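Renewal narrative, Specific Aim 1. Our central claim is that a sequence can be written position by position from structural information alone. The example that follows is taken directly from our test logs and has not been curated for this report. It begins with the structure tokens describing the chain, in the order in which they were read.
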């Protein structure tokens, strides 16, 4: 990290266009969450109802400035607020709209002072995993967790190290036009689309609409920027430089060799062969790795410097984390689920070497697929060769369950909120490898996997 403070209060005030004189007190961290405030922090008090036309899946009934006193007590040295808060003694930077005039304005100022490469990325599935791969590049700074929305992207920019070798900014969407706005804020020099898959069909209506939304990330590029695309995605809207990955493109797999539950891979990046390893879950992590290589190459950085790091990149919670419980291997892939990632999870499960036991899939509904949702669920049936048992959860998954042969269908439960982990635990036995996969509301929100772990431990 840079020896200089991330910001000073005076610098923040200048970025917000405030004319009052503020102290040069150092700021080392910016957050909108009063629970994350620590000494030396700037607290941005956002409204519980998003402004700027944005939509949140987790809107709060309370506003951030109601927690101003808590933030000061936790060590905040300043705060951005929409009006003066009584009883708060630290400097208050008052703006009309703490999101657009506060957090976004500071994010814009942060981006303006960084002259290095910025890789912005989006995609229907795997974008956070791809971001983690790119973030392994020496000296990189990247979005924490899944900070990819209207507050996560500006927070990433505000906290990014000005001395980093590259910034990596993940972008997602809750509505049409959001990726465009986020890209125009982040102003990437490289824009990466990891993939285009039938996700958010309920909102966007068609795969073509999804493609347009993802490719709109290119609108934040400068004229000499580079768009990085999978081999099967086109972007006629962009007339600048394009680099492709996958298939027979310039960034592609040459070969791979299984190494237990991992892979040793050789890839070709613009004519140069690079060897690297991938952790468990390698089949569906390979495309993410190729996307990372392509983006690093497009940023005029050395892809070979990334290669030794990939085998050490951990799998994020809910995205394939493994643990052994009562002799069974449990793979928690419950953070989200869509047709592409569901097939990837099944393919990864089928590729697992198993000495004894069975390959078991616990599958929950894939949401936001619109009128075609039933057909996307029944289509999973052709990907179940090599899977020994399937337990289905949710009304949509009944379409799949009805197609399963008697020896493969382990059961179906309609409502994930009433699913008892003990009922699933008794279906499992030592030696089984089990993947839990579905949309976030199916298993992740209900903390089903930790409860299943407890049920398996109690059973043992």
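The sequence written for that structure reads:
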């Amino acid at each position: 990290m840079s020896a200089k403070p991330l910001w000073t209060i005076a610098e923040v005030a200048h970025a917000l266009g405030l004319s009052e004189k503020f102290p040069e007190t150092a700021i080392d961290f910016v957050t909108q969450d009063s629970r994350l405030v620590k000494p030396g922090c700037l607290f941005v008090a956002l409204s519980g109802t998003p402004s700027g036309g944005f939509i949140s899946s987790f809107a709060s009934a309370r506003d951030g400035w109601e927690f101003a006193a808590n933030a000061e007590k936790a060590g905040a040295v300043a705060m951005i607020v929409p009006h003066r808060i009584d009883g708060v003694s630290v400097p208050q930077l008052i703006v009309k709209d703490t999101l657009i005039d506060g957090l976004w304005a500071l994010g814009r100022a942060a981006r303006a002072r960084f002259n290095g490469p910025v890789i912005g990325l989006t995609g229907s599935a795997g974008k956070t995993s791809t971001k983690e791969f790119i973030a392994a590049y020496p000296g990189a700074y990247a979005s924490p967790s899944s900070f990819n929305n209207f507050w996560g992207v500006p927070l990433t920019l505000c906290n990014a190290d000005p001395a980093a070798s590259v910034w990596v900014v993940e972008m997602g969407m809750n509505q049409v036009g959001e990726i465009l706005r986020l890209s125009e804020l982040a102003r990437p020099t490289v824009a990466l689309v990891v993939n285009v898959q039938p996700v958010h069909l309920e909102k966007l209506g068609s795969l073509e609409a999804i493609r347009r939304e993802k490719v709109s990330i290119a609108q934040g590029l400068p004229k000499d920027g580079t768009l990085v695309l999978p081999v099967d995605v086109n972007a006629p809207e962009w007339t600048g430089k394009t680099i492709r990955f996958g298939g027979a493109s310039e960034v592609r797999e040459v070969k791979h060799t299984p190494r237990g539950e991992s892979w040793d891979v050789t890839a070709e990046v613009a004519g140069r062969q690079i060897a690297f390893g991938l952790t468990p879950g390698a089949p569906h992590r390979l495309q993410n790795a190729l996307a990372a290589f392509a983006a690093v190459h497009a940023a005029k950085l050395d892809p070979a410097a990334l290669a030794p790091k990939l085998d050490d990149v951990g799998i994020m919670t809910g995205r394939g984390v493994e643990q052994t419980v009562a002799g069974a291997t449990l793979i928690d892939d419950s953070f989200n689920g869509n047709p592409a990632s569901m097939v990837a999870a099944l393919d990864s499960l089928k590729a697992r070497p198993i000495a004894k036991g069975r390959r078991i899939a616990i599958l929950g509904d894939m949401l936001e697929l619109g009128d075609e949702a039933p057909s996307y669920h029944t289509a999973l049936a052709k990907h179940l060769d090599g899977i020994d048992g399937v337990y289905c959860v949710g009304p949509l998954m009944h379409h799949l369950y009805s197609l399963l042969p008697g020896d493969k269908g382990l059961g179906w439960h309609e409502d994930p909120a009433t699913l008892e982990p003990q009922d699933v635990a008794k279906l499992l036995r030592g030696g089984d490898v089990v993947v839990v996969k579905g949309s976030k509301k199916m298993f992740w929100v209900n903390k089903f996997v930790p409860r299943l772990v407890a049920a398996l431990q109690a059973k043992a």
